[in-house]
Amino acid sequence: MRWLKSIWTILGSIAAGVMIGIYQPQLAEQLIPYGGLYLSFLKMCVIPIMVTAIVSSVGRLFMSTGSNKVLNKMLLVFIVGMLAVSVLGITAGLLGKPGEGISAGSKTVLGTIVLDNESSSADQADTASANGLMDFIFKLIPDNIFIALTQGNSLQILFFSVVVGIALGLLSVHTGEHFLSLVDLMFKVFQRIISWSMYVLPFGLLCIMAGQIASTGADLLLAMVKFIALAYTVALVLMIASGWIMAAKLKISFIQALKGLKETLIIAFGTQNSIATMPSALDSLRKQFKLDSDSVNLVVPLGVVLCRYSMVVVYSLGIIFIAQLYGVTLGLQDLFIIMAGAVLAAVAGAGTPGIVAIAMISLIADPLNLPSSTGIILLMAVNPIIDPILTTANIHLNSMAAVLIVDKAEDSQREAADYDPLPLGSSGTAS
């Protein structure tokens, strides 16, 4: 049955899904529930994997001596990476001018979409205003972790896992290791379940792609063709750049770096869900690139939840599109607001559903006096088209960040061998 996990089988199923969505839209709509069922199964396993991976990694990080080094590198790479993505999105918008030169027919199509969805957009914009940066901080701590687990609130689950991991890391080595061994066992159990689900991946991707294509109208595609083309271009440029960076850091070829993540990138493109792709990314980084397991298990979940490079592209490119659509000239100060605002909005929207996340663009549009409701409607309408490539780029960039932050397994073991600290359990402190 290995042929079911073949790259050609997976690509063929995606192509078949696209063809069904175009030529058999009624059949595609009937397949949508099955695609949702497959995604639900993946998400069922992802949350336990995320919890066990972070608890184990943070615990061992705080037991070791190199915690400050990893945390500092993580902070630097995440911030610089998101700012760089924001700058690229702004630059692409200014050069490509997606909001200019739109034909009268295309403007009519866009106007119809805006009118049809205007009432719902106002509610989503209000929700986004309520989900500002301060609200993000206040909602970080769950009132009840079991409710957060039931609702799949990834941000609150992430916070809980980090706190538990830190507490374990500050216990004595002997006590903490017993619990961490159990956590590692649970991590491997759910990884095994995920590996079983890969045999059903072609069918799941076929259903998901068919539904996505059927829900997207051809008129919208033609009306926003410049914006869609720019989004794909930015995503491909980011993936090529991150691929070369990974190759240079790992001292391998660009093709090897690409092959190491091929299954992960295909899953990301087909499911359009970064969280669901995370187990495959963890597996590839550990097995294909030989990175230290504990550090990878910490960096990747944090990056996927907090560093949503895909949303930074949507915000930065989307604001430029809205400004050009309404003929608003942006100054240098406005561009700096967009650059910083795209990063802050992406972080503030961490853990929110996709629709609410897109509505977070109002946090940038309102200070610039741009009509956020129009942007929200059009971005939501075009999201099924650009989401596959942006999710793929998001996972690729988070993998690159892990490569920059985490050392290879043999390097980590060598550093640990060079350092022989006094066991914490012997006196309660390290000399």
UniProtKB/TrEMBL annotation:
InterPro entries: Na-dicarboxylate_symporter, Na:dicarbo_symporter_sf. Keywords: Membrane, Transmembrane, Transmembrane helix, Transport. It is found in: Membrane. The keyword Hydrolase does not apply. The chain crosses the membrane at residues 7-25, 37-62, 74-95, 155-173, 193-214, 220-245, 302-323, 335-364. It comes from the Bacteria. This is Dicarboxylate/amino acid:cation symporter. It is a multi-pass membrane protein. The lineage of its organism: Bacteria, Bacillati, Bacillota, Bacilli, Bacillales. It holds the Pfam family SDF.
